[in-house]
Amino acid sequence: MSITQKETIKRSVEQESDNNWRDVLYDVIFKADTVPGKSFDVALIVIIALSVITVIINTVDTIDQKYGHFLHMAELVFTVIFTIEYILRLICCRRPVAYAKSFFGVVDLFSILPTYISVFLPSSHVLAVVRIIRVLRIFRVLKLVKYVGESELLIDALRSSRRKITVFLFSVITIVIIFGSVMYIVETPENGFTNIPQSIYWAVVTLTTVGYGDMTPQTHIGKVLSMVIMVMGYGIIAVPTGIVTAEMTKAMRHHNKVSSNVCEGCGYRWHDDDAHYCKHCGNSL
Amino acid sequence: MSITQKETIKRSVEQESDNNWRDVLYDVIFKADTVPGKSFDVALIVIIALSVITVIINTVDTIDQKYGHFLHMAELVFTVIFTIEYILRLICCRRPVAYAKSFFGVVDLFSILPTYISVFLPSSHVLAVVRIIRVLRIFRVLKLVKYVGESELLIDALRSSRRKITVFLFSVITIVIIFGSVMYIVETPENGFTNIPQSIYWAVVTLTTVGYGDMTPQTHIGKVLSMVIMVMGYGIIAVPTGIVTAEMTKAMRHHNKVSSNVCEGCGYRWHDDDAHYCKHCGNSL
Amino acid sequence: MSITQKETIKRSVEQESDNNWRDVLYDVIFKADTVPGKSFDVALIVIIALSVITVIINTVDTIDQKYGHFLHMAELVFTVIFTIEYILRLICCRRPVAYAKSFFGVVDLFSILPTYISVFLPSSHVLAVVRIIRVLRIFRVLKLVKYVGESELLIDALRSSRRKITVFLFSVITIVIIFGSVMYIVETPENGFTNIPQSIYWAVVTLTTVGYGDMTPQTHIGKVLSMVIMVMGYGIIAVPTGIVTAEMTKAMRHHNKVSSNVCEGCGYRWHDDDAHYCKHCGNSL
Amino acid sequence: MSITQKETIKRSVEQESDNNWRDVLYDVIFKADTVPGKSFDVALIVIIALSVITVIINTVDTIDQKYGHFLHMAELVFTVIFTIEYILRLICCRRPVAYAKSFFGVVDLFSILPTYISVFLPSSHVLAVVRIIRVLRIFRVLKLVKYVGESELLIDALRSSRRKITVFLFSVITIVIIFGSVMYIVETPENGFTNIPQSIYWAVVTLTTVGYGDMTPQTHIGKVLSMVIMVMGYGIIAVPTGIVTAEMTKAMRHHNKVSSNVCEGCGYRWHDDDAHYCKHCGNSL
Questions:
Q1: Where are the transmembrane segments (chains A, B, C, D) (predicted)?
Q2: pLDDT category, B257, cuts 50, 70, 90?
Q3: Residue B232 region by backbone torsions, left for phi larger than 0, else alpha for psi between -120 and 50, else beta
Q4: Which chain C residue is nearest to residue B188, measuring alpha carbons?
Q5: Is there a contact between A168 and D207 (Cβ–Cβ < 8 Å)?
Q6: At what angle do helices C2-30 and C61-92 cross, to 10 degrees?
Q7: How far apart are CA C244 and CA B240, in angstroms?
Q8: Which of B104, B119, B47, B32 is nearest to B81 (CA)?
């Protein structure tokens, strides 16, 4: 017990230097404004990209037969690197449980777990499942999104048109349900429209102008209805475009105002091109 | 006869209290600004959604074999609920005949009738027809449209570009008729273009870039004509997009400006929402 | 001879009344601002629409077998009507040869000629050809275009973006030729890319996102190239849309200015919303 | 040796007149603002177009059998012309090596080399390879791009939205990788999704709404996922359109306003092209 007490004391003593060490580590791993932080990010991007490529080409039989051994080695190396990264993130994070429960925490865990299972439980049945779960490592690619500049502008435009996009999606779903159901009645299961979910799948394929051709209308009424839904889809494509374009034009106009002259009275900078007086303090520009 | 007279009197006496009762019911069913009215709407949305899902999955054979009994029960329950709703609407509506003749009145009736027919006329031949009509209940999903916010903005944009969309649709129909007819001559019935309506169907499938592939040009001239119609369709898609985007940009600009007040100094009215001073003359707003 | 002289005199006498008669006829046939002119146009629209529908459904075998006799009768009636119209147009037109040589003059002639040939030269071989040419009557549908309102706005937008659309079309053709040729080398004739024109057809089908599926890449490199052209097509679709939208926004802004106040000094009416002085004469508004 | 010295002297003497000759040639070949320069360009455009058409139709078997001899002759003529052009360009260019290494230099060389190889090394095996490389002559079509007016406006709009298009492409790649991998797990190789690259190919075909139909989802979950990616693709198409439209609107507005002059009275600068008086202060412009 005294040993435990001692350890506790020792820990609290080490806490400060430990904290400093953790703070530095936190800056390197979670931030990107220092030189080591940036290097860490670049290294991570490269490793994630390589690991994603490994997962992708590993599923090609001919490549697996030729370079299977090399890919297996690479996978082990990536797993070790990702394990170290995962542990470091858990250590230096202030709330490790919150990180572990977050989307990227789960993805990080899932991208290392399967390899360990395949090493420690080498039964063939487990391996088949593991082989599949391992592919989920691909979600790590989402980590790269935050490194891409200007994505904020796009995300902002999408976010501010969020409600309109909901309305649009709701319209699409309504159209698809109604046309799917009517086509199920019109075409009957003999022509491939075996049930309403299948018909709805056809309606989505048609409305979005994908048009696989695995299900096509056979009856005359079915063909007429298809034409209606096609032209409708052709017109509906205009709606999200209109929304995003309008939002984007607005966002860009705001963005452009940055360069215009600053008001000397209040420091406001987002004046319109034709403004003679500051709209906030009434100062002459 | 005296009994009938008595009844008439009794009715006119009851009229007033009855009217109050009907007014309350009317507010609950047709309006949404009171607490019971809102609760009624939410409950109706949930029931309609559930009933639509029931209709959809009921057509899947595997699900029908497993949960057919349960789905049949659910259908009866939904029918009873919709029957009560239909009767209540008829009672509290000031002009029941107008409601019964309206689009939603007919849909409401058609979504309850088939089940009753299948209960009271259980002949197998009638059942087959009823099974099909029952699917029309799906049109009830349109009732949900009015609960979606911001749909006015979209509908407004579509309405104000109504005439331009007509012009666009007319152009599409003209192009499709002419290309369909020419392709019928060029490809001949041997290559699947059996008649002009079929050729028009092909032209719509191609112009809208759906491209099922169930009919494809086989001759050289046919392929050249297809290329022309494809690039044309590719360009025509720009027209509705342009219309809706232009209308939307206008609507959004208008929406942003409507709230502003007129400057007393210079009469300028298109101030931004956050303007405190007129940007033209510097007057306080 | 004296008879001829007499006739000539008679003619020159009749000339004036004849001219009046021709002027009235001209107003009725070629203009639409009088009551008889409008009635003539409406009647012509209905007859053309009916005749186009007759041509279309006449190619459907089942309908032809059932109502063939009736459709044949209708065709004769339409031919007689169109013949009268054609002759009237030739008579009242100031330059009949110019009309006869114009696009619609040729279409008008071609829509009556085949029926007469089939009546006077009833050999089966000629009939087969006539049956095909008769379909060209469908081009009469283009006559309806000028009766559709607001088409000027669309046509204006297209015309003012004419040069940009040329650039766009040229880019599409260049991309399609290069990708088609490269795919011909990559896929080889064994995989269906039998020659470069075929490959170009495939490239157009892919770039415009039609995607029939009658020709698909089979090799690995071919699939990678296909992905490039698909994403490219996805992006290129933005260009005509951008052009038309930008033109349309400009056109609509001009169009909106109509409602603004008229300058008292010079009568100019197309002022901007924020104009305080007329930009043409400097008058205060 | 003295002969060589003499030659060197002779050369340096000729240098000046030679330089003049080279300068004139340079103006004719590389510039287009003189009459001979323009004629040279027009002639080159025609010859390139003819040669591209020759390459294209030469791959059609039926045409090759009929007109093969004539096409072979035409090819020799084009090769000679292009050889002269290539040599002239090398001579009059100030830095011949830089030209030879440039994209068009390589294309120019590759469009003449194969014919010479087939003439001097007429072994059947080499011929097969040469036949393929000869098709690359088609890249010469890119030379025509610079002769198309207004392409600058388009290229400018694309260039200024370069970074946003990168973000968009990155999003597309991310979506395609994730959906491709998930579909590989869901559909399994039995349904045609043999490996992840194949699945990614399917995802691109679906997201861009091309929809060949050579690979289609067979399982229920696969179809649901397909519907998600289709609607997503339908929505994502809005993003590049929005970007290009917004850039284009800006470019066009800028283009229209650039020519205007500043009002001396109030300093307002964004006058319309047809403004004679400032719309803000009424000052004469």
A1: 40-58, 70-91, 165-186, 224-246
A2: very low
A3: alpha
A4: C132
A5: no
A6: 120
A7: 9
A8: B47
Q: Which two tokens stand for residue B246?
A: 């232009």
Residue D70 Cα to chain centre, angstroms: 30
Q: Please list every residue in chain A whose beta carbon sits closer than 8 Å to the beta carbon of residue B247.
A: 242
* Residue B123 DSSP class: -
Partner residue opposite A138 with nearest CB, options D168, D178, D197 = D178
A274 vs C contacts (CB less than 8 Å): 274
Question: What is the chain C residue with the closest CA to B231?
Answer: C208
Distance from CA of C210 to the nearest CA of A (A): 8
CA distance D194 to A62: 11
B113-151 residue pLDDT tens = 877 877 777 666 666 666 667 777 777 777 766 665 556
CA distance to partner chain C, nearest, from residue A155 (Å):
19
Residue D23's contacts (CB-CB under 8 Å, 6 or more residues apart) are D92
pLDDT in tens, chain C (285 residues): 455 555 555 555 455 555 677 777 777 777 767 788 778 878 888 888 888 888 888 888 888 888 888 888 888 898 899 899 888 888 887 788 888 888 878 888 888 888 887 777 766 666 666 666 767 777 777 776 666 555 666 677 667 777 777 777 877 888 898 899 889 888 888 888 988 899 999 999 999 888 898 899 999 999 999 999 998 887 777 777 777 777 777 766 655 544 445 566 665 555 555 566 666 566 666
**Contacts with C210 from chain D: Cβ below 8 Å:** 210
CA distance C29 to chain A (A): 35
**What is the CATH T-level fold of the domain A3-147, as seen in this structure?**
Four Helix Bundle (Hemerythrin (Met), subunit A) (1.20.120)
C66, burial (CB in 10 Å: exposed 0-12, middle 13-18, buried 19+): exposed
d(CA A133, CA A137) in angstroms, rounded, equals: 8
User: Which residues in B lie closer than 8 A to residue C243 (C-beta atoms)?
Assistant: 238
Residues of C contacting chain A (CB within 8 angstroms): 209-213, 241, 245, 274
Could you tell me which chain C residue has the CA closest to the CA of B205? C210
DSSP letter assigned to residue D20: H
pLDDT of residue A259: 41
Closest Cβ opposite residue D276 in set C166, C194, C279: C279
Nearest CA in chain C to D209: C209
| Least reliable range by pLDDT among B251-260, B276-285, D53-62 | B251-260
Nearest CB to C177 within list D138, D208, D252: D138
pLDDT less than 70: residues of chain A: 1-19, 32, 122-132, 144-154, 157-158, 251-285
Write the residue in B55, B139, B148 that is nearest to A167 by C-beta: B148
Query: Residue B197: its chain A contacts at CB < 8 A?
Result: 220, 223
Q: Specify the CATH architecture of the domain A148-285.
A: Orthogonal Bundle (1.10)
Can you say how many angstroms the Cα of residue D77 is from the centroid of all Cα atoms in its chain?
Answer: 25
Confidence of residue B247 (pLDDT cuts 50, 70, 90): confident
Buried b (16+ CB within 10 A) or exposed e, B252-265: beeeeeeeeeebee
Collect all residues of chain C within an 8 Å Cβ-Cβ radius of residue B166: 148, 150
Shortest Cα–Cα distance, B243 to chain A (Å) = 8
Cβ–Cβ below 8 Å for D211 and A201? no
* Of residues C209, C213, C241, nearest to A213 (C-beta): C213
Task: Of A82, A21, A8, A23, give the one whose Cα is nearest residue A52.
Answer: A82
pLDDT of residue C204: 92
pLDDT at C262: 58
**Spans of all domains in chain B:** 3-147, 148-285
User: How many interface pairs between A and C have CB atoms less than 8 angstroms apart?
Assistant: 10
**pLDDT < 50 positions in chain D:** 1, 13, 257-260
